[in-house]
Design brief:
The complex is a heterotrimer. Chain B is α/β, with parallel strands linked by helices. In chain B, 35% of the residues lie in helices and 24% in strands. The chains are: A mainly alpha, B alpha/beta, C mainly alpha.
Chain lengths: 329, 274, 283
């Protein structure tokens, strides 16, 4: 190489004095810039999403304020919009789904983590991961043609006959309703509970289990009294995650819930959820207030799932810290 | 200085099955006996024809270099090896002349307790840790009395009596290990197995636990695995030396450390290998 | 054996059997869904299904050709948006970024991932539908692309990070610049995982219905270009399933079978690809 006195930038880390343009000729800087732009676009689009939700809901926010959340009237004709029936429906169906999915899911996770031989556990987990990939609309399809008739012909009448004195199980057996939606949601969130709980249980240190066994515990006692409590933060995280999914589920719910803005103590009653009403009425919404009320509902849903997801991830992180002996009981 | 290789070619006296009771005043009762134990992890054999006895109310230590099978042997005594699917045992192991494989494993583990290498208290309070075994097995009499008794036996009572409901994880490493000992003692085992109980602890905690072990002899029979020969010499009455899965020598501690009968034992205890 | 011990052992066996039952039930659901779809959908899938347009309402016959093409178009758009952003963004996170920026980007991605799909639809509506004053394939593709971004981003980042330092250092010691190292060594080393990530996120958005309801909307006929509303398989399933016509129900089953079959095959292929390669963190 001839020793010329050109302004070719040196290969060493002499960054400070170089101008922007000379840096640009360096392939690495361009790569950094380009990839940065892509990464930044993620942040931008997310911020934009929140902003749009906020901006496009200003009408009902100004008109109804906090009353939006406690009014139970949803009357598009008279421009009266209250979110309560949808919040109620979303919460009820999610709670019902968790009541079913959590015991089943944790039970399955215990089997996979503690009992099943490794290959069986991995194979079953593979199938459960596939279950998680089934789209909502397919669950809805089965909900309409399998679950609803089952509910209408067998389950609802059966519950009414045996437990009908409870307000929960009163009213006509339509087949659709809160309970049906809860059951379908339960099937949808079980895979998430199983996957996360299984991983959390597998990460509990061996010597906890061994200590329990060495004291003369049965296998169930060591699992129930020692391993599960050790993993309880992580398992709670999985439940929150499942809840966040249940809250946001749209298609399957809207196909089986009955789509009526009602608040009722009976689980047989048709109802509505936030996601379902948006799905059904968004394209029919006449007038800005109507549309923006639906958007405000979307904002509510966003905030709920945002909080839950954050909590869930925090809990799961906390368990993994405990596993290394850093945490406290 | 004889090399290890030449030690192998020397004519060795066969492993001693029963320690000669020269110095014992009372006749020795054998709490547990192991006869011709062979152990396999899948196809790999790890213990070869090991036979020894654990004398009642005495401390028996198992020493040997890393990987010699001492921990494996210990874990067979309370059937903890069964947590690994591919493990297989041949040979006979008796406690009070009863075959340990013929009885219910849960009942056996109440009689033969274990303390592990790293302290592993449960994520519960100090009280609940010690009470755990009592609660699952059921106990006559008051649980808090039994908890106090155990904590006194493990020399931890004075340090924790005012904070029984605090988390066990708030304790230091040495305290946690004494808690684990208390937890094991609470169910009143006949035999207590300790697997390198001090290897994760500082010297002061180690000394406290060694002191403890000598006192615990009166309560139960003790078998301890240790990689620290001085510890074995300090606390145990009988010592078994294992090497690559075989029992090389088994004698009263004083004898093994001063006049070992096998050249390999001598090589190990003088630090030529291990 | 004492009574108490006998009882405890009984409880142990009973409860552990119950957990086995739970696992069995969970997996059985999958096979039930598959079986049901195969049975009902299998009998309805026909050549017509793939080639004909929907018949006028109430008439028997017709197919979902436009929905199939529509879904394909939407997914192409989604990939065009989601994959580059996810891929290059992940390279930034794994190779160039500092701690704080990385945290912010990851946080935003996780946030985006957690947004319910219907809310993504609202966002796409206000960004793409409102300004142009009509539903469009573009809007639908945009919504789906948004959903692909976080999955692609986080998974790709994990796989890039899993490439051992030694590989990078080997290339750089030979004089390769950073971007050359990434392009010629790191990415190829992680390609299996990256491919899996893309496939899995593709499969996820292929089944999404909610964000399409008011972006791509629907169409009983062919949709030309990219700025017309278009039919899509998931939306057709929804519309047909809740309608009162038996023939539509049959077609919904067929569409469900095709859609689920596609999604499951992609999932299985993705996981097989992954298992053939180096063990890397699970998505």
């Amino acid at each position: 190489m001839a020793t010329t006195t050109t302004t070719v930038p040196s290969a060493g880390p002499v960054a400070g004095s170089r101008s922007f343009l000379t840096k640009l000729r360096d392939g690495d800087e361009i790569a950094r810039l380009i990839t940065f732009l892509f990464a930044a676009s993620v942040v931008l689009v997310t911020l934009l999403l929140v902003y749009e939700l906020w901006r496009e809901s200003y009408l009902p926010r100004h008109k109804f304020g906090f009353g939006f959340f406690i009014t139970s009237v949803w009357d598009p004709i008279f421009d009266k919009f209250g979110a309560l029936p949808f919040i109620y429906g979303t919460l009820i169906t999610s709670i019902v789904s968790l009541l079913i999915a959590v015991p089943l899911g944790i039970g399955a996770a215990i089997f996979l983590a503690e009992l099943a031989p490794v290959r069986v556990s991995d194979t079953l987990q593979f199938f459960i991961d596939l279950l998680a990939a089934v789209p909502s609309v397919i669950y809805g399809l089965l909900g309409v043609f399998v679950v609803i008739p089952l509910m209408r012909e067998y389950i609802q009448p059966g519950l009414k006959n045996s437990l009908g004195f409870l307000p929960l199980f009163q009213g006509p057996a339509y087949g659709v309703g809160f309970l049906t939606a809860g059951i379908v949601l339960a099937i949808m969130v079980i895979p998430y509970i199983i996957s996360v709980s299984r991983e959390v249980l597998l990460s509990v240190p061996r010597d906890q289990r061994e200590a329990a066994l060495a004291l003369g515990s049965t296998r169930w006692e060591s699992t129930w009294k020692v391993v599960l409590p050790f993993a309880r933060t992580g398992i709670m995280g999985s439940v929150f995650l499942a809840l966040a999914r249940a809250l946001g589920e749209t298609m399957a719910v809207t196909m089986v819930i009955g789509n009526t803005p009602t608040i009722s103590a009976s689980l047989f009653s048709p109802g509505y959820s936030i996601a379902a009403v948006i799905a059904n009425e968004f394209t029919e919404a006449t007038g800005d207030l109507y549309l923006q009320s639906l958007i405000e509902l979307g904002l509510v849903l966003f905030l709920l799932t945002f909080l839950l997801n954050g909590l869930a991830r925090l809990l799961i992180v906390l368990t993994s810290q405990r596993g290394s002996g850093m945490g406290q009981a | 200085m004889a090399s290890v290789r030449s030690a192998v070619s020397v004519n060795i006296t066969p492993p001693v099955a029963t320690p000669p009771s020269r110095e014992a005043q009372a006749p020795l009762v054998m709490r547990m006996t192991a006869s011709k134990v062979n152990f396999y992890y899948g196809p790999k054999q790890v213990l070869f024809d090991v036979s020894l006895n654990i004398a009642s109310n005495k401390v028996t230590s198992l020493i040997g270099p890393s990987g010699c099978g001492k921990s494996t042997l210990l874990r067979i005594l309370n059937r903890m090896h069964e947590t690994v699917r591919t493990s297989r045992v041949e040979g006979e192991i008796l406690i009070d002349n009863q075959n340990i494989f013929a009885q219910d494993v849960t009942a056996l583990r109440r009689r033969v307790g274990m303390v592990f290498q790293r302290p592993n208290p449960f994520p519960k309070s100090i009280f609940e840790n010690v009470a755990y075994g009592l609660r699952i097995n059921g106990t006559k009499g008051s649980i808090s009395d039994a908890v106090e008794k155990s904590l006194r036996h493990s020399a931890l009572w004075d340090e924790v009596k005012d904070q029984l409901h605090k988390s066990a994880y708030d304790l230091s490493g040495g305290q946690q290990q004494r808690l684990c000992i208390a937890r094991a003692l609470a169910v009143e085992p006949e035999v207590l197995l300790l697997d390198e109980p001090c290897s994760a602890l500082d010297p002061i905690s180690t000394a406290k636990i060694e002191e403890l072990l000598v006192q615990l002899k009166d309560l139960c029979t003790i078998a301890i695995v240790t990689h620290n020969m001085q510890q074995a010499a300090r606390v145990s009455d009988f010592t078994a030396f294992l090497l690559t899965g075989q029992l090389i020598e088994f004698n009263p501690t004083a004898q093994l450390f001063t006049t070992p009968t096998d050249a390999r034992t001598e090589a190990y205890i003088t630090g030529r290998f291990g | 054996m004492s009574h108490r011990l006998r009882w405890r052992k009984f409880v142990s066996h009973f409860m552990l059997t119950m957990t086995g039952l739970c696992a069995f039930v969970a997996v059985a659901v999958l096979f039930f869904i598959l079986g049901y779809l195969l049975y009902h959908g299998g009998t309805s899938v026909s050549w017509n299904f793939f080639t004909k347009l929907p018949a006028p309402v109430g008439e028997v016959g017709g197919g979902m050709a436009n929905a199939i093409v529509g879904s394909a178009k939407l997914l192409i758009l989604a990939c065009l948006l989601g994959v580059p952003i996810g891929f290059f963004g992940a390279i930034y996170l794994a190779e160039f970024s500092g701690g704080t920026t990385a945290f912010v980007v990851r946080y935003a991605a996780d946030l985006l991932n957690g947004v319910p799909s219907i809310v993504i639809g609202i966002f796409a509506y206000s960004l793409v539908v409102l300004p142009f004053k009509h539903f469009s394939t573009l809007a639908g593709g945009f919504a789906l692309g948004l959903m692909m971004i976080p999955i692609t981003l986080r998974s790709t980042e994990e796989f890039l990070r899993a490439v051992p330092r030694a590989l990078r250092e080997g290339a750089m010691a030979l004089g390769a610049s950073k971007w050359k190292t990434i392009a010629s060594v790191v990415v190829p080393a992680a390609y299996r995982g990256i491919l899996t990530a893309v496939l899995l996120s593709f499969a996820r958005v292929a089944g999404e219905t909610a964000p399409l309801l008011f972006t791509a909307f629907g169409n009983r006929f062919w949709s030309s270009g990219w700025s017309q509303p278009t039919a899509s398989l998931p939306v057709m399933i929804f519309t047909y399933a809740i309608a009162p016509y038996d023939d539509w129900h049959r077609q919904a089953w067929a569409a469900g079978l095709v859609l689920l079959g596609l999604i499951l095959i992609i999932n299985i292929v993705a996981r097989v690809i992954l298992s053939r390669g180096v063990a890397v963190p699970r998505t």
